[in-house]
Amino acid sequence: MARWEGNARGRLERAALDLFREQGYDGTTVAQIAQRANLTERSFYRWFADKREVLFGDDDLEACYLPVIEAAPEGLAALPTLLSAFASTPEVLRPREFVIERAAVIAASPPLQERELIKMVTLSEKLVAALVRRGHDDQTAHLAADVGSAILRLATRRWILGDDSDFSDLLAAARQDLVDVAVT
Description:
The chain folds into two domains: about 10-55, Arc Repressor Mutant, subunit A, CATH 1.10.10.60; about 60-184, Tetracycline Repressor, domain 2 (Orthogonal Bundle). Helices cover about 70% and strands about 0% of the residues. The protein has helices at about 10-25, 30-35, 40-45, 55, 60-70, 80-85, 95-105, 110-135, 140-160, 165-184. α1 crosses α2, α1 (about 10-25) crosses α7 and α6 (about 80-85) runs parallel beside α9. It starts with 7 loop residues before the first helix and ends with a helix.
């Protein structure tokens, strides 16, 4: 076992994703993931509580969005505040190939789909709370979080499909698409 190879977390994530694709999520063990990453099971548990958390263990989006929401100019409406925060998404996005593979693994497993939904609801609740702290009423904050999340999903989908436009432009295009659907 290599003692000083760097990026243990990244190696574990890559090993897990590869094994999940090859054997399925249920057919993969923590021992297999650690072995593939050339690490011990103990090392695995330093980074992750269980194998599911390899796919869901980071709070990078929350850590990226909340400070931007808190620093938004006074008086900025709820949805523009969120879109400003969402523009920082590329700072935490994994490489496109990783995101695509992760999505495929999640799509193949109903329990992982459920976990993904829980993660998104939790993020939405934190966005709502951040907007309320900024003085937006609860109803406005919830609606902005729901609409903003739809815009973010569409922009991210376009990015996954290969659109290399600036992420702010992807968000603007997705927002316009939503307006077009809502008005027609």
